[in-house]
Task: structure prediction
Amino acid sequence: MSRIRSRPRSRCSPRQRALQRRFASPRLRNPDGPLPRSGVPKVPRRPVDQPRSLLEFQRAFPDEAACADYMERVRWPDGFVCPHCDARREPTRFAAKPAVLRCRACLKDTSLTAGTVMHATKQPLHVWFWAAYLVTTQTPGMSALQFQRQLGIGRYETAFQLLHKLRAGMVRPDKDRIGDEWAVEVDESFVGGRTKGKGRGNTDAPLVIAAVEVRERVHPKLGRRSVYAGRLRLRHIVSRERAECEEFVRDSIQPGSTVRTDGHNGYDHLPRMGYRHEALVLDGDAERIERHLPLVHIVFSNLKTWLRGTHHGVSGQHLQAYLNEYVFRFNRRFYPMTSFASVLGIGSVRSGPTYDGLYGGEYQHPNPEAPLRSRLSSAGRRKAAGQAAGLRARRRAKGGR
Result:
């Protein structure tokens, strides 16, 4: 009589076996083998392989360990390097503190959030990951109040500051200039409502200047050629003076590009700066606007609709931060589900605003192309220029006597 051999008992629990069958690599044949460190597959850094739906994002980042593992691979793609002793060794990790790594050589701790927009944060890492995902993938964006409700944050000020830290991570420090082979449309517009009690033509609304690429593409089936908007640049400026307009063009557009503007004399010196300038006096003619500057006016229309609809208006103090978010969302509109990786990747090399700096007014929102601006309004600039001209005239008259 043959003896029936019993199957050896599994070394792991049924829950672990289920997780291994679900997340283990196809090469792993033994279901009783060790689990990965985070229990989930590693998320690649390439945008093509990033999570493209809410369920995929939830599977990729289910806990703090998975978020910490992703941040570690973003900061050190070739392996951990201790910032204290430059040792290239596998660090010691702690289950209770996934965001802290300890060097095995010098025994010093390194925080994954140090020097980033998440520096000294009290919020868990998965809250930051969910925040970046919700803000970047929602087409109309998200206000601070809705953001507070979605993530269950206790105070509105915390949600407001967290959003502004994410907006600080939306600006690349090495942002390049647009244009080159593509023509660029440049124009200015007031962003805001009417000013009461100052008469017609006087407004306190902030002024925004924009530059957008004009790109062409051919339909693969119909063979029809169409025009669409390429990359975008926005800046909050004080006035339409030549110095500010030329500075924006110089910092945002590649020399040698074709620049299309209206008849404003602030762009008259662009040919001397190495640009091919195409100017046209519009005079409010809808046909001329549609033919010469169609895309930049669409950009301004969508920007104003977004500020009124999603945020119900913003202050001039933080306007540049919202412009940065709009540019980030606009330039990545064709692949919005992978934009959160860009926010966390850029945010790992940039620091965010503090509470005192954000509410005290000392913090200046990042804009790599922006020069240092004064806090005077357009009327204040004109008044100061008139006073300076009068002072120079009095000095010349005094010197002639």
About this structure: The chain has 13 helices and eight strands. The first helix runs from residue 14 to 23.
